[in-house]
């Protein structure tokens, strides 16, 4: 898997924290890209964070990437975790 992040981009910090929780469960390469770099070939605008799975598929929602890492780490998600992810997405990442 490959995780693309950009310095100062919203959403990268929680994704990196979730990735740290899954450390050692799968091979993960973390790449820092510029905020204007298009990582996902079928998106018309640049978007980070992005997780490219080994299958070649992409996850580009901060909440989806965090949930993926939580599942990978074996951490049982609860309502509080889901509430935090939704709050983070709606309050901190307003576009």
Automatic annotation (TrEMBL):
It comes from Papio anubis. This is Methionyl-tRNA synthetase 1. The gene is MARS1. It comes from the Eukaryota. It holds the Pfam family GST_N_5. Residues 1-74 form the Methionine--tRNA ligase N-terminal domain. Gene3D superfamilies: Glutaredoxin (3.40.30.10). SUPFAM superfamilies: Thioredoxin-like. InterPro entries: MARS_N (IPR041598), Thioredoxin-like_sf (IPR036249). The lineage of its organism: Eukaryota, Metazoa, Chordata, Craniata, Vertebrata.
